[in-house]
Amino acid sequence: MTALSALLVRDMRLAIRVGGGALMGVLFFLIVVTLVPFAVGPDLVQLRRIGPAILWLGALLACLLTLDRLLAADHEDGSLDLILMGGTPLELSLLAKAVAHWITTGLPLVIATPLLGLLLDLEPLAIGAVALTLLAGTPALTCIGLIGAALSVALRRGGLLLPVLILPLTVPVLIFGVAASNAAVAGPLSFGAPFMILCALTLGSLVLGPFAAAAALRHGLE
Amino acid sequence: MALVGPNGSGKSSLLRLIAGLLRPSAGRIEFQGGTAERTIGEQAHYLGHLDPLKPSLTVAENLDFWAGYLGDRDSPADEALAAVGLGALTDLPAAYLSAGQRRRLSLARLLAVPRPIWLLDEPASGLDAAGQERLAEHMREHLATGGMVVAATHGPLGIECEELRLGGSP
Amino acid sequence: MALIDLANPTRFLSVTERVLPWLAAATALAFAAGLYLVWAVAPDDYQQGATVTIMFIHVPNAWLAMGVWTVMSIASIGTLVWRHPLADVAGKSAAPLGAAFTFLALLTGSLWGRPMWGTYWVWDARLTSVLVLFLMYLGVIALWRTVDDPARAGRAAAILTLVGAINLPVIKFSVDWWNTLHQPASVLRVGGPAIHPSILTPLLVMALAFGLLFVTLHLAAMRNEILRRRVRAMWLLQAHPAQGA
Questions:
Q1: Positive or negative CA dihedral for B151, B153, B158, B159?
Q2: CB A121 to CB C178 under 8 A?
Q3: What is the tens place of the pLDDT at every residue in A84-131?
Q4: Which candidate in A183, B112, B131, C143 could, as Cys together with B80 as Cys, close a disulfide (CB 3.0–4.6 Å)?
Q5: Do the interacting molecules here have an ipTM over 0.85?
Q6: Global pTM exceeds 0.80
Q7: Out of A14, A78, A81, whose CB is closest to B57?
Q8: DSSP A18
Protein backbone atom coordinates (compact mmCIF):
# COMPACT_ATOMS: atom_id res chain seq x y z
CA MET A 1 0.00 0.00 0.00
CA THR A 2 2.90 2.35 0.73
CA ALA A 3 3.95 2.08 -2.91
CA LEU A 4 0.52 3.09 -4.19
CA SER A 5 0.06 5.93 -1.73
CA ALA A 6 3.56 7.17 -2.59
CA LEU A 7 2.58 7.26 -6.26
CA LEU A 8 -0.74 8.95 -5.48
CA VAL A 9 0.87 11.61 -3.32
CA ARG A 10 3.61 12.25 -5.88
CA ASP A 11 1.18 12.70 -8.77
CA MET A 12 -1.02 15.05 -6.75
CA ARG A 13 2.02 17.08 -5.68
CA LEU A 14 3.19 17.32 -9.28
CA ALA A 15 -0.22 18.54 -10.36
CA ILE A 16 -0.22 21.49 -7.97
CA ARG A 17 3.46 22.48 -8.26
CA VAL A 18 4.90 24.86 -10.84
CA GLY A 19 4.14 23.57 -14.30
CA GLY A 20 1.41 21.28 -13.02
CA GLY A 21 -1.93 21.24 -14.74
CA ALA A 22 -4.37 20.96 -11.84
CA LEU A 23 -6.22 24.21 -12.45
CA MET A 24 -5.59 24.27 -16.19
CA GLY A 25 -8.48 21.84 -16.75
CA VAL A 26 -10.91 24.12 -14.89
CA LEU A 27 -9.69 27.13 -16.86
CA PHE A 28 -10.16 25.24 -20.13
CA PHE A 29 -13.65 24.18 -18.97
CA LEU A 30 -14.53 27.81 -18.23
CA ILE A 31 -13.30 28.96 -21.64
CA VAL A 32 -15.21 26.26 -23.55
CA VAL A 33 -18.43 27.12 -21.70
CA THR A 34 -17.86 30.82 -22.39
CA LEU A 35 -17.34 30.21 -26.09
CA VAL A 36 -20.62 28.35 -26.62
CA PRO A 37 -22.90 31.41 -26.25
CA PHE A 38 -20.76 33.20 -28.84
CA ALA A 39 -21.63 30.41 -31.24
CA VAL A 40 -25.30 29.83 -30.41
CA GLY A 41 -26.29 33.31 -29.25
CA PRO A 42 -26.96 34.92 -25.86
CA ASP A 43 -30.62 33.86 -25.61
CA LEU A 44 -31.00 32.61 -22.03
CA VAL A 45 -33.98 30.38 -22.80
CA GLN A 46 -31.96 28.51 -25.39
CA LEU A 47 -28.85 28.37 -23.19
CA ARG A 48 -30.89 27.00 -20.29
CA ARG A 49 -32.18 24.25 -22.55
CA ILE A 50 -28.77 23.13 -23.83
CA GLY A 51 -26.89 24.05 -20.62
CA PRO A 52 -26.39 20.50 -19.28
CA ALA A 53 -25.10 19.39 -22.66
CA ILE A 54 -22.63 22.30 -22.82
CA LEU A 55 -21.34 21.58 -19.34
CA TRP A 56 -20.90 17.90 -20.12
CA LEU A 57 -19.10 18.57 -23.38
CA GLY A 58 -16.83 21.12 -21.71
CA ALA A 59 -15.99 18.73 -18.88
CA LEU A 60 -15.36 15.90 -21.34
CA LEU A 61 -12.89 17.97 -23.38
CA ALA A 62 -11.17 19.43 -20.30
CA CYS A 63 -10.77 15.97 -18.82
CA LEU A 64 -9.39 14.37 -21.98
CA LEU A 65 -6.97 17.12 -22.96
CA THR A 66 -5.23 16.94 -19.59
CA LEU A 67 -4.80 13.17 -19.92
CA ASP A 68 -2.16 13.66 -22.60
CA ARG A 69 0.59 14.13 -19.98
CA LEU A 70 -0.64 11.45 -17.58
CA LEU A 71 1.82 8.80 -18.75
CA ALA A 72 3.87 10.73 -21.33
CA ALA A 73 5.73 12.74 -18.67
CA ASP A 74 6.71 9.57 -16.82
CA HIS A 75 7.73 7.95 -20.08
CA GLU A 76 10.01 10.81 -21.08
CA ASP A 77 12.09 10.84 -17.91
CA GLY A 78 12.31 7.08 -17.52
CA SER A 79 10.03 6.85 -14.49
CA LEU A 80 7.68 4.59 -16.40
CA ASP A 81 10.45 1.98 -16.82
CA LEU A 82 10.82 1.71 -13.07
CA ILE A 83 7.05 1.62 -12.57
CA LEU A 84 6.89 -1.26 -15.06
CA MET A 85 9.72 -3.13 -13.35
CA GLY A 86 8.73 -2.62 -9.73
CA GLY A 87 7.03 -5.24 -7.62
CA THR A 88 3.72 -3.37 -7.53
CA PRO A 89 1.18 -4.74 -10.01
CA LEU A 90 1.06 -2.35 -12.97
CA GLU A 91 -2.75 -2.31 -12.95
CA LEU A 92 -2.83 -0.98 -9.39
CA SER A 93 -0.14 1.61 -10.11
CA LEU A 94 -2.11 2.85 -13.10
CA LEU A 95 -5.27 2.96 -11.00
CA ALA A 96 -3.41 5.07 -8.42
CA LYS A 97 -2.32 7.45 -11.18
CA ALA A 98 -5.90 7.61 -12.46
CA VAL A 99 -7.20 8.41 -8.96
CA ALA A 100 -4.62 11.20 -8.62
CA HIS A 101 -5.64 12.56 -12.01
CA TRP A 102 -9.31 12.50 -11.09
CA ILE A 103 -8.74 14.26 -7.77
CA THR A 104 -6.70 17.01 -9.42
CA THR A 105 -8.72 17.36 -12.64
CA GLY A 106 -12.14 15.71 -12.45
CA LEU A 107 -13.08 16.86 -8.97
CA PRO A 108 -12.25 20.55 -9.61
CA LEU A 109 -14.47 20.38 -12.70
CA VAL A 110 -17.35 19.12 -10.55
CA ILE A 111 -16.73 21.90 -8.03
CA ALA A 112 -16.63 24.54 -10.78
CA THR A 113 -19.88 23.31 -12.34
CA PRO A 114 -22.32 25.32 -10.13
CA LEU A 115 -20.56 28.57 -11.03
CA LEU A 116 -20.65 27.80 -14.74
CA GLY A 117 -24.26 26.69 -14.37
CA LEU A 118 -25.09 30.23 -13.24
CA LEU A 119 -23.53 31.60 -16.43
CA LEU A 120 -25.92 29.45 -18.43
CA ASP A 121 -28.87 30.45 -16.23
CA LEU A 122 -29.61 26.90 -15.11
CA GLU A 123 -32.15 26.22 -12.36
CA PRO A 124 -30.68 25.12 -9.02
CA LEU A 125 -32.16 21.67 -9.59
CA ALA A 126 -30.48 21.39 -13.00
CA ILE A 127 -27.15 22.59 -11.56
CA GLY A 128 -27.38 19.95 -8.86
CA ALA A 129 -28.23 17.26 -11.40
CA VAL A 130 -25.32 18.19 -13.70
CA ALA A 131 -22.86 18.33 -10.79
CA LEU A 132 -24.04 14.96 -9.52
CA THR A 133 -23.82 13.30 -12.93
CA LEU A 134 -20.36 14.79 -13.48
CA LEU A 135 -19.29 13.50 -10.07
CA ALA A 136 -20.45 10.04 -11.07
CA GLY A 137 -19.26 10.22 -14.68
CA THR A 138 -15.83 11.92 -14.69
CA PRO A 139 -14.05 8.90 -13.11
CA ALA A 140 -15.18 6.94 -16.15
CA LEU A 141 -13.67 9.60 -18.43
CA THR A 142 -10.36 9.42 -16.57
CA CYS A 143 -10.22 5.62 -16.73
CA ILE A 144 -11.14 5.47 -20.41
CA GLY A 145 -8.60 8.20 -21.05
CA LEU A 146 -5.98 6.16 -19.22
CA ILE A 147 -6.26 3.53 -21.95
CA GLY A 148 -5.66 6.18 -24.59
CA ALA A 149 -2.72 7.61 -22.66
CA ALA A 150 -1.17 4.14 -22.42
CA LEU A 151 -1.71 3.48 -26.12
CA SER A 152 -0.21 6.78 -27.22
CA VAL A 153 2.84 6.20 -24.99
CA ALA A 154 3.23 2.64 -26.23
CA LEU A 155 3.00 3.81 -29.84
CA ARG A 156 5.23 6.84 -29.12
CA ARG A 157 2.72 9.22 -30.67
CA GLY A 158 1.41 12.16 -28.75
CA GLY A 159 -0.92 15.02 -29.42
CA LEU A 160 -4.22 14.44 -31.13
CA LEU A 161 -3.98 10.66 -31.28
CA LEU A 162 -5.30 10.33 -27.74
CA PRO A 163 -8.57 12.26 -28.20
CA VAL A 164 -9.15 10.57 -31.54
CA LEU A 165 -8.80 7.16 -29.92
CA ILE A 166 -10.75 8.00 -26.82
CA LEU A 167 -13.63 10.29 -27.76
CA PRO A 168 -15.67 7.55 -29.48
CA LEU A 169 -15.36 5.42 -26.34
CA THR A 170 -16.80 8.18 -24.18
CA VAL A 171 -20.07 8.33 -26.14
CA PRO A 172 -22.06 6.16 -23.69
CA VAL A 173 -20.90 8.22 -20.71
CA LEU A 174 -21.91 11.42 -22.49
CA ILE A 175 -25.32 10.01 -23.49
CA PHE A 176 -26.31 8.87 -20.03
CA GLY A 177 -24.74 11.81 -18.24
CA VAL A 178 -26.68 14.36 -20.28
CA ALA A 179 -29.80 12.18 -20.28
CA ALA A 180 -29.80 11.98 -16.49
CA SER A 181 -29.26 15.73 -16.13
CA ASN A 182 -32.05 16.53 -18.55
CA ALA A 183 -34.36 13.97 -16.99
CA ALA A 184 -33.96 15.64 -13.61
CA VAL A 185 -35.28 18.94 -15.00
CA ALA A 186 -37.61 18.21 -17.88
CA GLY A 187 -38.54 14.54 -17.76
CA PRO A 188 -40.21 12.50 -19.14
CA LEU A 189 -37.75 9.82 -18.03
CA SER A 190 -36.90 9.45 -14.38
CA PHE A 191 -33.50 10.61 -13.17
CA GLY A 192 -32.73 7.28 -11.57
CA ALA A 193 -32.54 4.97 -14.57
CA PRO A 194 -29.94 6.83 -16.68
CA PHE A 195 -28.03 7.78 -13.55
CA MET A 196 -27.74 4.13 -12.50
CA ILE A 197 -26.47 3.22 -15.96
CA LEU A 198 -23.93 6.06 -15.71
CA CYS A 199 -22.72 4.69 -12.37
CA ALA A 200 -22.47 1.23 -13.90
CA LEU A 201 -20.38 2.62 -16.77
CA THR A 202 -18.05 4.27 -14.27
CA LEU A 203 -17.63 1.11 -12.21
CA GLY A 204 -17.04 -0.91 -15.37
CA SER A 205 -14.38 1.43 -16.68
CA LEU A 206 -12.69 1.54 -13.27
CA VAL A 207 -11.98 -2.14 -13.80
CA LEU A 208 -11.45 -2.16 -17.55
CA GLY A 209 -9.31 1.00 -17.78
CA PRO A 210 -6.28 -0.04 -15.67
CA PHE A 211 -6.22 -3.56 -17.15
CA ALA A 212 -6.41 -2.40 -20.75
CA ALA A 213 -3.85 0.35 -20.12
CA ALA A 214 -1.46 -2.09 -18.44
CA ALA A 215 -1.81 -4.50 -21.34
CA ALA A 216 -1.12 -1.69 -23.81
CA LEU A 217 2.02 -0.66 -21.92
CA ARG A 218 3.33 -4.22 -21.69
CA HIS A 219 2.83 -4.75 -25.40
CA GLY A 220 4.61 -1.47 -26.08
CA LEU A 221 7.76 -3.15 -24.71
CA GLU A 222 8.44 -5.25 -27.78
CA MET B 1 30.46 -7.64 -14.32
CA ALA B 2 31.26 -4.95 -16.81
CA LEU B 3 29.68 -4.91 -20.26
CA VAL B 4 31.97 -3.26 -22.76
CA GLY B 5 31.78 -2.80 -26.51
CA PRO B 6 31.32 -0.13 -29.18
CA ASN B 7 28.19 2.01 -29.53
CA GLY B 8 25.29 0.00 -30.89
CA SER B 9 26.71 -3.35 -29.82
CA GLY B 10 23.70 -4.03 -27.60
CA LYS B 11 24.89 -3.22 -24.08
CA SER B 12 21.80 -1.20 -23.19
CA SER B 13 19.48 -3.70 -24.85
CA LEU B 14 20.98 -6.53 -22.83
CA LEU B 15 20.42 -4.60 -19.61
CA ARG B 16 16.83 -3.82 -20.59
CA LEU B 17 16.33 -7.50 -21.43
CA ILE B 18 17.56 -8.54 -18.00
CA ALA B 19 15.37 -5.90 -16.35
CA GLY B 20 12.35 -7.24 -18.22
CA LEU B 21 11.81 -4.00 -20.12
CA LEU B 22 12.39 -5.74 -23.44
CA ARG B 23 11.08 -9.14 -24.36
CA PRO B 24 13.55 -11.65 -25.84
CA SER B 25 12.51 -12.89 -29.29
CA ALA B 26 14.00 -16.26 -28.37
CA GLY B 27 15.59 -17.75 -25.30
CA ARG B 28 15.16 -17.20 -21.60
CA ILE B 29 16.86 -15.23 -18.86
CA GLU B 30 17.36 -17.06 -15.60
CA PHE B 31 18.67 -15.79 -12.34
CA GLN B 32 20.05 -18.40 -9.97
CA GLY B 33 19.96 -17.81 -6.25
CA GLY B 34 17.11 -15.30 -6.15
CA THR B 35 13.56 -15.72 -5.01
CA ALA B 36 11.87 -17.95 -7.53
CA GLU B 37 8.40 -16.41 -7.43
CA ARG B 38 9.62 -12.89 -8.17
CA THR B 39 10.77 -11.62 -11.54
CA ILE B 40 14.28 -10.36 -12.02
CA GLY B 41 12.90 -6.87 -12.47
CA GLU B 42 11.43 -6.94 -8.98
CA GLN B 43 14.79 -7.88 -7.48
CA ALA B 44 16.88 -5.50 -9.54
CA HIS B 45 17.62 -1.81 -9.70
CA TYR B 46 17.77 -0.43 -13.22
CA LEU B 47 19.72 2.78 -13.71
CA GLY B 48 19.06 3.82 -17.29
CA HIS B 49 20.29 6.76 -19.36
CA LEU B 50 17.49 8.93 -18.01
CA ASP B 51 17.22 10.19 -14.46
CA PRO B 52 13.63 9.58 -13.39
CA LEU B 53 13.29 12.79 -11.40
CA LYS B 54 10.56 15.40 -11.30
CA PRO B 55 12.00 18.94 -11.49
CA SER B 56 9.23 20.51 -9.39
CA LEU B 57 9.69 18.13 -6.45
CA THR B 58 12.50 18.60 -3.97
CA VAL B 59 15.50 16.28 -3.82
CA ALA B 60 14.14 14.53 -0.74
CA GLU B 61 10.62 14.23 -2.18
CA ASN B 62 12.00 12.62 -5.33
CA LEU B 63 13.98 10.05 -3.38
CA ASP B 64 11.21 9.44 -0.82
CA PHE B 65 8.85 8.64 -3.65
CA TRP B 66 11.10 5.98 -5.17
CA ALA B 67 11.96 4.58 -1.75
CA GLY B 68 8.24 4.31 -0.98
CA TYR B 69 7.31 2.99 -4.40
CA LEU B 70 10.13 0.50 -4.95
CA GLY B 71 10.79 -0.39 -1.32
CA ASP B 72 7.16 -0.29 -0.23
CA ARG B 73 8.12 1.44 2.99
CA ASP B 74 9.14 4.79 4.38
CA SER B 75 12.90 4.57 4.40
CA PRO B 76 15.25 7.18 5.79
CA ALA B 77 16.24 9.11 2.68
CA ASP B 78 18.71 11.32 4.50
CA GLU B 79 21.34 8.61 4.87
CA ALA B 80 21.25 7.71 1.19
CA LEU B 81 21.44 11.39 0.21
CA ALA B 82 24.39 11.96 2.50
CA ALA B 83 26.09 8.88 1.04
CA VAL B 84 25.98 10.35 -2.47
CA GLY B 85 26.99 13.83 -1.28
CA LEU B 86 23.63 15.56 -1.63
CA GLY B 87 22.95 15.83 2.09
CA ALA B 88 22.98 19.63 2.03
CA LEU B 89 20.48 19.97 -0.81
CA THR B 90 17.54 17.89 0.45
CA ASP B 91 14.96 20.68 0.26
CA LEU B 92 16.07 22.05 -3.10
CA PRO B 93 13.76 21.47 -6.08
CA ALA B 94 15.40 18.99 -8.43
CA ALA B 95 15.13 21.53 -11.26
CA TYR B 96 18.17 23.33 -9.83
CA LEU B 97 20.44 20.28 -9.93
CA SER B 98 23.20 19.89 -12.49
CA ALA B 99 23.48 16.75 -14.63
CA GLY B 100 25.99 15.17 -12.25
CA GLN B 101 23.88 15.98 -9.20
CA ARG B 102 20.84 14.46 -10.88
CA ARG B 103 22.88 11.31 -11.51
CA ARG B 104 23.88 11.17 -7.85
CA LEU B 105 20.24 11.50 -6.83
CA SER B 106 19.39 8.57 -9.09
CA LEU B 107 22.18 6.57 -7.45
CA ALA B 108 20.79 7.38 -4.01
CA ARG B 109 17.73 5.35 -4.99
CA LEU B 110 19.93 2.22 -5.21
CA LEU B 111 21.22 2.82 -1.70
CA ALA B 112 17.83 3.66 -0.17
CA VAL B 113 16.17 0.42 -1.27
CA PRO B 114 18.29 -2.74 -0.95
CA ARG B 115 17.99 -5.06 -3.94
CA PRO B 116 20.43 -7.80 -4.90
CA ILE B 117 20.98 -6.94 -8.57
CA TRP B 118 22.14 -3.58 -9.90
CA LEU B 119 21.72 -3.02 -13.62
CA LEU B 120 23.67 0.12 -14.46
CA ASP B 121 23.72 1.76 -17.86
CA GLU B 122 26.65 4.18 -18.11
CA PRO B 123 26.48 4.84 -14.35
CA ALA B 124 29.40 7.28 -14.40
CA SER B 125 28.00 9.62 -17.08
CA GLY B 126 27.92 13.18 -15.82
CA LEU B 127 29.79 12.34 -12.62
CA ASP B 128 32.99 14.16 -11.67
CA ALA B 129 36.11 12.33 -10.44
CA ALA B 130 34.95 12.40 -6.83
CA GLY B 131 31.54 11.13 -7.86
CA GLN B 132 33.05 8.25 -9.82
CA GLU B 133 35.21 7.37 -6.85
CA ARG B 134 32.10 7.30 -4.64
CA LEU B 135 30.25 5.18 -7.20
CA ALA B 136 33.05 2.61 -7.26
CA GLU B 137 32.99 2.54 -3.47
CA HIS B 138 29.22 1.92 -3.41
CA MET B 139 29.60 -0.88 -5.97
CA ARG B 140 32.40 -2.46 -3.94
CA GLU B 141 30.24 -2.37 -0.80
CA HIS B 142 27.31 -3.83 -2.69
CA LEU B 143 29.47 -6.68 -4.01
CA ALA B 144 30.92 -7.27 -0.56
CA THR B 145 27.44 -7.84 0.86
CA GLY B 146 26.79 -10.49 -1.77
CA GLY B 147 25.14 -8.27 -4.39
CA MET B 148 25.58 -8.41 -8.13
CA VAL B 149 26.40 -5.54 -10.46
CA VAL B 150 26.00 -5.57 -14.23
CA ALA B 151 27.20 -2.30 -15.70
CA ALA B 152 27.47 -1.14 -19.29
CA THR B 153 30.39 1.22 -19.57
CA HIS B 154 32.99 2.80 -21.81
CA GLY B 155 35.42 3.95 -19.16
CA PRO B 156 36.96 2.03 -16.28
CA LEU B 157 34.53 1.18 -13.48
CA GLY B 158 37.13 1.44 -10.77
CA ILE B 159 36.45 -2.04 -9.41
CA GLU B 160 37.93 -5.45 -10.10
CA CYS B 161 35.44 -7.43 -12.19
CA GLU B 162 34.83 -9.71 -15.13
CA GLU B 163 34.41 -8.18 -18.55
CA LEU B 164 31.89 -9.22 -21.17
CA ARG B 165 32.85 -7.83 -24.56
CA LEU B 166 29.95 -7.33 -26.97
CA GLY B 167 30.13 -6.71 -30.70
CA GLY B 168 32.85 -7.53 -33.20
CA SER B 169 36.44 -7.13 -32.06
CA PRO B 170 37.77 -3.70 -33.07
CA MET C 1 22.02 36.27 -12.38
CA ALA C 2 24.64 38.95 -11.86
CA LEU C 3 24.77 41.12 -8.77
CA ILE C 4 24.25 44.29 -10.80
CA ASP C 5 20.71 43.15 -11.63
CA LEU C 6 19.88 43.11 -7.94
CA ALA C 7 21.12 46.66 -7.38
CA ASN C 8 17.97 48.31 -8.62
CA PRO C 9 15.55 46.00 -6.86
CA THR C 10 17.48 46.61 -3.63
CA ARG C 11 16.82 50.32 -3.86
CA PHE C 12 13.22 49.50 -4.72
CA LEU C 13 12.91 47.35 -1.61
CA SER C 14 14.24 50.04 0.71
CA VAL C 15 12.07 52.79 -0.80
CA THR C 16 8.88 50.75 -0.74
CA GLU C 17 9.52 49.65 2.80
CA ARG C 18 9.25 53.29 3.87
CA VAL C 19 6.36 54.18 1.56
CA LEU C 20 4.08 51.16 2.09
CA PRO C 21 2.78 51.99 5.61
CA TRP C 22 1.77 55.46 4.45
CA LEU C 23 0.07 54.05 1.38
CA ALA C 24 -1.80 51.52 3.46
CA ALA C 25 -2.94 54.26 5.82
CA ALA C 26 -4.06 56.44 2.91
CA THR C 27 -5.99 53.48 1.47
CA ALA C 28 -7.76 52.88 4.77
CA LEU C 29 -8.63 56.57 5.06
CA ALA C 30 -9.96 56.74 1.50
CA PHE C 31 -12.10 53.66 2.09
CA ALA C 32 -13.45 55.12 5.34
CA ALA C 33 -14.35 58.37 3.60
CA GLY C 34 -15.77 56.58 0.57
CA LEU C 35 -17.94 54.20 2.56
CA TYR C 36 -19.19 57.05 4.74
CA LEU C 37 -20.19 59.00 1.62
CA VAL C 38 -21.84 55.92 0.08
CA TRP C 39 -23.98 55.09 3.05
CA ALA C 40 -24.61 58.47 4.63
CA VAL C 41 -24.62 60.92 1.74
CA ALA C 42 -25.53 59.18 -1.51
CA PRO C 43 -29.31 58.90 -2.01
CA ASP C 44 -31.04 55.63 -2.85
CA ASP C 45 -31.99 55.40 -6.48
CA TYR C 46 -35.70 55.97 -7.04
CA GLN C 47 -35.93 52.83 -9.18
CA GLN C 48 -33.38 50.48 -7.66
CA GLY C 49 -33.52 51.39 -3.99
CA ALA C 50 -30.58 50.38 -1.86
CA THR C 51 -29.11 47.99 -4.43
CA VAL C 52 -27.54 50.98 -6.17
CA THR C 53 -24.92 50.83 -3.41
CA ILE C 54 -23.35 47.88 -5.21
CA MET C 55 -22.46 50.25 -8.01
CA PHE C 56 -19.93 52.02 -5.79
CA ILE C 57 -18.01 48.77 -5.52
CA HIS C 58 -18.75 47.51 -9.01
CA VAL C 59 -17.70 50.47 -11.10
CA PRO C 60 -14.25 51.07 -9.50
CA ASN C 61 -13.49 47.39 -9.85
CA ALA C 62 -14.51 47.42 -13.50
CA TRP C 63 -12.27 50.45 -14.10
CA LEU C 64 -9.38 48.74 -12.36
CA ALA C 65 -9.98 45.56 -14.37
CA MET C 66 -9.04 47.52 -17.46
CA GLY C 67 -6.51 49.77 -15.71
CA VAL C 68 -4.43 46.88 -14.42
CA TRP C 69 -4.10 45.44 -17.90
CA THR C 70 -2.80 48.84 -18.99
CA VAL C 71 -0.24 48.72 -16.16
CA MET C 72 0.75 45.23 -17.27
CA SER C 73 1.09 46.37 -20.89
CA ILE C 74 3.40 49.21 -19.89
CA ALA C 75 5.41 46.78 -17.76
CA SER C 76 5.57 44.43 -20.76
CA ILE C 77 7.03 47.15 -22.94
CA GLY C 78 9.57 47.70 -20.15
CA THR C 79 10.40 44.00 -20.18
CA LEU C 80 10.74 43.67 -23.94
CA VAL C 81 12.30 47.01 -24.88
CA TRP C 82 14.42 48.06 -21.90
CA ARG C 83 14.77 44.66 -20.25
CA HIS C 84 14.29 46.39 -16.94
CA PRO C 85 14.53 43.83 -14.11
CA LEU C 86 11.65 45.43 -12.22
CA ALA C 87 9.34 45.46 -15.25
CA ASP C 88 8.50 41.79 -15.37
CA VAL C 89 8.28 41.74 -11.58
CA ALA C 90 5.64 44.46 -11.95
CA GLY C 91 3.86 42.54 -14.69
CA LYS C 92 3.83 39.29 -12.79
CA SER C 93 2.60 40.82 -9.53
CA ALA C 94 -0.14 42.80 -11.29
CA ALA C 95 -1.75 39.81 -13.02
CA PRO C 96 -3.38 38.13 -9.96
CA LEU C 97 -4.51 41.54 -8.68
CA GLY C 98 -6.06 42.35 -12.04
CA ALA C 99 -7.78 38.98 -12.09
CA ALA C 100 -9.11 39.60 -8.57
CA PHE C 101 -10.49 43.04 -9.45
CA THR C 102 -12.04 41.65 -12.63
CA PHE C 103 -13.57 38.81 -10.65
CA LEU C 104 -14.98 41.30 -8.13
CA ALA C 105 -16.41 43.36 -10.97
CA LEU C 106 -18.08 40.26 -12.40
CA LEU C 107 -19.29 39.11 -8.98
CA THR C 108 -20.75 42.45 -7.97
CA GLY C 109 -22.22 42.88 -11.44
CA SER C 110 -23.84 39.50 -11.12
CA LEU C 111 -25.20 40.26 -7.64
CA TRP C 112 -26.48 43.58 -8.93
CA GLY C 113 -28.02 41.87 -11.90
CA ARG C 114 -30.07 39.50 -9.76
CA PRO C 115 -32.59 42.14 -8.57
CA MET C 116 -32.31 44.11 -11.83
CA TRP C 117 -32.64 41.40 -14.44
CA GLY C 118 -34.04 38.55 -12.36
CA THR C 119 -31.04 36.40 -13.10
CA TYR C 120 -27.42 36.29 -12.02
CA TRP C 121 -25.97 36.41 -15.47
CA VAL C 122 -26.95 37.91 -18.79
CA TRP C 123 -24.80 37.61 -21.88
CA ASP C 124 -24.77 41.36 -22.20
CA ALA C 125 -21.99 42.86 -24.33
CA ARG C 126 -20.27 44.67 -21.48
CA LEU C 127 -20.43 41.77 -19.03
CA THR C 128 -19.25 39.35 -21.66
CA SER C 129 -16.24 41.46 -22.60
CA VAL C 130 -15.25 41.64 -18.95
CA LEU C 131 -15.60 37.86 -18.70
CA VAL C 132 -13.24 37.47 -21.68
CA LEU C 133 -10.85 39.90 -19.98
CA PHE C 134 -11.01 37.71 -16.86
CA LEU C 135 -10.15 34.64 -18.93
CA MET C 136 -7.17 36.47 -20.40
CA TYR C 137 -5.91 37.36 -16.92
CA LEU C 138 -6.16 33.70 -15.96
CA GLY C 139 -4.28 32.79 -19.13
CA VAL C 140 -1.39 35.11 -18.23
CA ILE C 141 -1.30 33.72 -14.68
CA ALA C 142 -1.30 30.17 -16.09
CA LEU C 143 1.64 31.09 -18.33
CA TRP C 144 3.59 32.44 -15.35
CA ARG C 145 2.84 29.29 -13.40
CA THR C 146 3.88 26.96 -16.22
CA VAL C 147 7.42 28.20 -16.70
CA ASP C 148 9.81 28.01 -13.77
CA ASP C 149 12.53 30.35 -15.06
CA PRO C 150 11.29 33.92 -14.41
CA ALA C 151 13.28 35.52 -17.25
CA ARG C 152 11.84 33.23 -19.91
CA ALA C 153 8.33 33.31 -18.46
CA GLY C 154 8.59 37.10 -18.23
CA ARG C 155 9.26 37.61 -21.93
CA ALA C 156 6.55 35.14 -22.96
CA ALA C 157 4.02 36.74 -20.62
CA ALA C 158 5.00 40.21 -21.88
CA ILE C 159 4.32 39.19 -25.48
CA LEU C 160 0.99 37.63 -24.48
CA THR C 161 0.03 40.77 -22.52
CA LEU C 162 0.79 43.07 -25.43
CA VAL C 163 -1.07 40.85 -27.90
CA GLY C 164 -3.95 40.94 -25.44
CA ALA C 165 -3.80 44.72 -25.22
CA ILE C 166 -4.00 44.97 -29.02
CA ASN C 167 -6.75 42.39 -29.14
CA LEU C 168 -8.95 43.77 -26.37
CA PRO C 169 -10.57 46.49 -28.53
CA VAL C 170 -11.14 43.92 -31.28
CA ILE C 171 -12.75 41.54 -28.78
CA LYS C 172 -14.87 44.37 -27.39
CA PHE C 173 -15.98 45.35 -30.88
CA SER C 174 -16.86 41.81 -31.94
CA VAL C 175 -18.72 41.11 -28.72
CA ASP C 176 -20.75 44.29 -29.24
CA TRP C 177 -21.48 43.25 -32.81
CA TRP C 178 -22.41 39.71 -31.69
CA ASN C 179 -24.70 41.09 -29.03
CA THR C 180 -26.61 43.53 -31.26
CA LEU C 181 -26.88 40.81 -33.89
CA HIS C 182 -28.64 38.55 -31.45
CA GLN C 183 -30.71 41.19 -29.66
CA PRO C 184 -30.66 40.05 -26.04
CA ALA C 185 -33.90 39.73 -24.10
CA SER C 186 -33.69 42.76 -21.85
CA VAL C 187 -30.91 44.94 -20.68
CA LEU C 188 -31.39 47.83 -18.35
CA ARG C 189 -28.69 50.37 -17.90
CA VAL C 190 -28.37 53.05 -15.29
CA GLY C 191 -26.47 56.27 -15.48
CA GLY C 192 -25.68 57.84 -18.80
CA PRO C 193 -23.63 60.96 -19.16
CA ALA C 194 -25.52 62.94 -16.55
CA ILE C 195 -24.77 61.59 -13.10
CA HIS C 196 -25.88 63.66 -10.16
CA PRO C 197 -22.93 64.96 -8.05
CA SER C 198 -24.39 63.29 -4.95
CA ILE C 199 -23.62 59.98 -6.64
CA LEU C 200 -20.55 61.04 -8.59
CA THR C 201 -18.55 62.26 -5.57
CA PRO C 202 -18.83 59.02 -3.54
CA LEU C 203 -18.09 57.06 -6.71
CA LEU C 204 -14.90 58.99 -7.39
CA VAL C 205 -13.78 58.68 -3.76
CA MET C 206 -14.40 54.93 -3.89
CA ALA C 207 -12.48 54.74 -7.18
CA LEU C 208 -9.61 56.57 -5.52
CA ALA C 209 -9.73 54.15 -2.58
CA PHE C 210 -9.63 51.10 -4.84
CA GLY C 211 -6.86 52.68 -6.89
CA LEU C 212 -4.79 53.21 -3.74
CA LEU C 213 -5.59 49.65 -2.69
CA PHE C 214 -4.20 48.41 -5.98
CA VAL C 215 -1.01 50.47 -5.69
CA THR C 216 -0.46 49.26 -2.11
CA LEU C 217 -1.07 45.60 -2.92
CA HIS C 218 0.94 45.83 -6.12
CA LEU C 219 4.01 47.26 -4.38
CA ALA C 220 3.71 44.65 -1.63
CA ALA C 221 3.36 41.88 -4.20
CA MET C 222 6.39 43.19 -6.10
CA ARG C 223 8.42 43.11 -2.88
CA ASN C 224 7.36 39.52 -2.32
CA GLU C 225 8.25 38.60 -5.88
CA ILE C 226 11.72 40.18 -5.60
CA LEU C 227 12.33 38.32 -2.34
CA ARG C 228 11.05 35.09 -3.93
CA ARG C 229 13.54 35.52 -6.77
CA ARG C 230 16.33 36.10 -4.28
CA VAL C 231 15.40 32.86 -2.57
CA ARG C 232 15.57 31.21 -5.96
CA ALA C 233 18.96 32.75 -6.66
CA MET C 234 20.19 31.51 -3.27
CA TRP C 235 18.96 28.03 -4.10
CA LEU C 236 20.88 28.13 -7.35
CA LEU C 237 23.92 29.34 -5.46
CA GLN C 238 23.54 26.50 -2.99
CA ALA C 239 23.32 23.93 -5.76
CA HIS C 240 26.21 25.31 -7.82
CA PRO C 241 28.51 27.22 -5.48
CA ALA C 242 31.26 27.43 -8.10
CA GLN C 243 29.26 29.26 -10.77
CA GLY C 244 27.12 31.54 -8.63
CA ALA C 245 29.66 33.97 -7.19
A1: positive
A2: no
A3: 887 788 889 999 999 999 999 889 999 999 989 888 888 888 899 999
A4: B112
A5: no
A6: yes
A7: A14
A8: T
